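Quick entry between incubations.
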Amino acid sequence: MNTDSTVPSDLVLLQKEADLASWLAARAPVAIGFSGGVDSAYLAVAARLHLGTDGVLAIIGRSASYPEAQWAAARTVARSFDVPVLELDTAELDDPRYAANPSNRCYYCKTELWSRLVPIARARGFSTVADGTNADDLSDWRPGAQAAREHGVASPLAELGFTKQDIRDASRRLGLPTWQQPSSPCLSSRLPYGTEVTRARLEQIERAEEALRALGIAGDLRVRYHEDLARVELGADELPRWLEPRRFDVLRDALVKTGFERVALDLRGFRSGSLNVLHGVGA
Amino acid sequence: MTQPDRGDRTARNATALAAAIAQLGVQCSLEARGGLVLLLPVKASVEALQSPDTRRAVLALCREHGFTHVGVELPSDRRGAERDADAPLLRD
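Done. Structure below.
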């Protein structure tokens, strides 16, 4: 991997892509935990291109914390790029350690995912199981990464130094629709730590975010759940126009219909891992 | 001497914060919820929040007063003059 700062960034990325091709070839066949997000979509399509349909299996874990729209996007990518897909149900909400929503909630979620996915992959002859963790993720609070390690799941994008921007650039070159898709963590990330994760709350959050998308809000968007209050984080381009009272009324009406009594716009706007900051949790 | 509990400190911070924000031309009541503070501006102050400079200044003040997150709950454009009080209020 070449990280020499004097080498043009395009060449650095090309080298990383070549490294990824070698990594995949050396470990084929490869099963991939596939959410349809930017990272795992790129990894799945790259694996399909380099290993063929017999060399890759994209496995989707479905549960209430996985947005329906994300599932549909994942299926679309797989269909468009001829990536074989397997779906399995996960039941992290039935684990009281997960439902209690501690700061290491993701550990229990990923433990549930990998403990179901890895044996299925191995039984089908996939010697390697990988996820879409990227190099930027390594500096964030990611307790789920421990579960991946415990189950022998590899993270080639992180290992080879792919940043999120690298993955977006490479995805764009491959024609992946996900290249400019906002990051899409699970719906439980909208609940402050310590607030119980329930199906009803996840469904409410999903309806709320869908309602805001239906208003034409593009880009990064989160509805943070504070019991009676929805705190809406919008991208920098969207925030100013929704701070206009008439527009705010429209936004509030849309969210009240989904069950929130009160609505506030976050003055700072979208930030990934916002609730980690609220609770002083971090890497 | 007894130490003020966390709730007291939060309330005191919110009171001081409301006064500081008023200096920026934004009259509002505040509601503290742990590290989150909700601003409830009066109608006449909503326009001031359209300014990126004002928003940045408000955020900086909130950080200085110990809040990590700032939400703004605007008065309804349909509900007349509710919350058009002159003085900042504290709700906790």
